[in-house]
Amino acid sequence: MTYCVGIRVQQGLVFAADTRTSAAFDDVRIHSKMHVFEFPDRVLVLLSSGNLATTQTVLARLACDAENEASGLRSAKHLFEVAEHIGQTLVAAQQLVANNNSPNPVNVEATLVLGGQIRGEQPALYLIYPLGNWISASPETPYVQIGESKYGKPILDRIVRSATTLEDAARCAVVSLDSTARSNLSVGLPFDLAIVRTGELKIAQTLRLEADTPLYVEIRDTWSRKLEHAVHSLPRFAWETDAAKIKSA
Amino acid sequence: MTYCVGIRVQQGLVFAADTRTSAAFDDVRIHSKMHVFEFPDRVLVLLSSGNLATTQTVLARLACDAENEASGLRSAKHLFEVAEHIGQTLVAAQQLVANNNSPNPVNVEATLVLGGQIRGEQPALYLIYPLGNWISASPETPYVQIGESKYGKPILDRIVRSATTLEDAARCAVVSLDSTARSNLSVGLPFDLAIVRTGELKIAQTLRLEADTPLYVEIRDTWSRKLEHAVHSLPRFAWETDAAKIKSA
User: Fold this and answer.
1) How far is B181 from chain A (nearest CA, A)?
2) Shortest Cα distance from B32 to chain A (angstroms)?
3) Could you name the domain of life of the organism this protein comes from (chains A, B) (predicted)?
4) Engineering a disulfide at A54: which of A39, A84, A110, A170 sits with its beta carbon 3.0 to 4.6 angstroms away?
């Protein structure tokens, strides 16, 4: 499994990904799932989940494309066209092995997130399915997730809006990853974080959070403390206030 | 789908359940999934998920048992024996229809939560599987969930400990249900809440929360506001403090 999330707010884009890949409980490794392409007129960030052989094939091919100015990656005028190009690359990588019948069927599908900005356009964010088709983040749902998406979704739903600051969105993404890694063993540290500011056409910040990175430790501890405080400050039940009235009477 | 959660803290037990049952998107109804049995020497609360015909069969049989002092429900000395009795009732209900082959296979399994207290014992909390076997909540994992459990799990993991007050645990349960209902259409209002205080051998409080119940509205709004505040109060990234230093210099 994997958990990656991309967020699009007015100020720009946030990308966050875990790094654990697992073929089985006893076959666990660390691979980055965040892949950055920067060119003078565009910045592209890809997050990957699913079959590792497939995503590495896609990445290897896209890295070749990146050297060719005429490739879909570099020549497309619109980000959705880049998403389609990557979608086709993904489908081709899956089809390469689709007919290699094995007695132990393996799911070779992968799912990707593509975000970025091309000069002349607003930043955009896409989820690319194994079929090669895509959906875009929207103002109402300003994020896309791949992999183990459920544990980390409520915090995104409650907090992230288009007007949320880039840094608050990034803090949300870290909490969302942390919640997921606590509940699904196949999602694990270190976490990769990247930020693209609207109009800059480059990565503004990247960060790798390890278990002992002070910022990560502090975010995790503060979050637990604040959440406890938040629960405790929720409205009282009627019988609590009644009991308090009786006591104070 | 369904979402129910039971929590066991030192002060007692919390039970919370949604009420939506759905055979399909266009076949949605409201049924209580919380079932209470009170006797002078014991209190039992059952939460149900899965096939509604199965859970109603189980409940109908347990209601008969409740009239008979010698039944497993009333005569068992230990709560785990009640769990086993209910587990056997569940298996029997499933087996009733197991061989009625249909061209459209239907999953007739159900999963239950049993919590309560029998005089002379501490309160206890069990998850009863379709096989009729069970697991117990533990001091390290003081809750059990059935149905759509993922969205509402992080808040429980971060907050609920054995020392948490009964009311804070109940507030957590409401937030956990609310998070789930936001993300899974098959989980829906109204929510049922019940509380058992250690040693009382009866239901201390029950509550039904509708969409317009002032307490529920207030909990939901306060939670979103507090969470936003919590995110905003998380540690700054290095580049934010650097930028602040430059500004103030």
Assistant:
1) 10
2) 21
3) Bacteria
4) A110
